[in-house]
Structure formats: C-alpha cells, structure tokens
Amino acid sequence: MDTVGNRIRHVREKLGMTQDALATAAGLSKGFISEVENSKRNISAQNLLKVANALSASIQYLLEGGEYQSREHRSIVIPPELSKAAEQLALTYAQTLSLLETYQSVVARRRKNLPKALSVEDWVELHRTIDKVFGHEGSSR
Q: Are residues 54 and 21 in the same domain?
C-alpha cells in the first residue's frame, strides 16, 4: 500500500533532493524525514504543510496519491480577498499559499464545487482557526 512517506520519498527523489536538503528546507530533522518515509512515524498536518511547501507538492497528492504534479506547473490564483487578509495578518507568501491550499483541500473533500468566494473577514477567521488548531508556529500575531 502506498503511504504518505512513500509519496514524500517519491517526490523528493524525483526532484533529486536528499533527506538532508528536504529536512533543511522544511525546518525538520533528517531523522524525522527518514522515519516518516520509512513509515516508522506519522506526520502531523503542520509538518506535512512544511514538507509539501519544501517539495512544491500538493498536500492532496501527499495524502491521497494519484498523479503527481508539481505546484510549480500549476497556475496559482490568490483571490483578492485572501491577498488583503494576508496583508492584514502580515502573512508571508508561503503562509498565504498554505492557507489557500488548506482551504481548497478541506472544501474539496466535502463538496464537488467550491462555495462562494470568501470575504477578507472569512479568510482572517479561517487563518485564526487553523492557527488555534495547529499551534502558533509561523503565526503572525
């Protein structure tokens, strides 16, 4: 059975990246990356986001598999409301992309079509909720 760790290894190797390089890029230890890739350790949502960003891979692919497509090959459209919310929250570009991808991933699991566009206030509230759930690391308070 294909696992999250196997998919992380697949993408890492496809990019010609070592475990050391991935660990450095994601801000994690090489030992942790090795244990996840060898299914000796589970990965939290927060660390999965870090790994996905470091690999430019979608969280959906890392979790579920399917056809791998680097995020670099997809057009990324940041809604204007999210852009304004990111300014208010002083989010980095990577944090903004993570928020957008998290939203899209959650909605994709629950609905066939995305709901109406979120307001600036909705994006701010979503960020605060995610921050409460996943901790304060990378927080912009």
A: yes
Task: Report the alpha-carbon distance of residue 109 to residue 64 in Å, rounded.
Answer: 11
Q: Which structural domain range is residue 115 located in?
A: 80-134
Within 13 A of 31's CA, how many CA atoms are on the CB side?
0
Task: Give the single-character DSSP code of 38.
Answer: T
- Dist CA 116 CA 86 (whole Å): 19
**b/e burial code for range 79-104 (CB count within 10 A of at least 16 → b):** eebbeebbeebebeeebbbbbbbbbe
Domain count along the chain: 2
Residue of 70, 83, 71 lying closest to 117 (CA atoms): 83
Distance between start and end Cα atoms, the chain: 41
Helix (H) or strand (E) holding 72: none
Q: What is the pLDDT of residues 94-123, one digit of tens each?
A: 788 888 877 877 665 555 555 678 899 999
Report if residue 26 sits inside a domain: yes
Task: Return the DSSP state at 112.
Answer: S
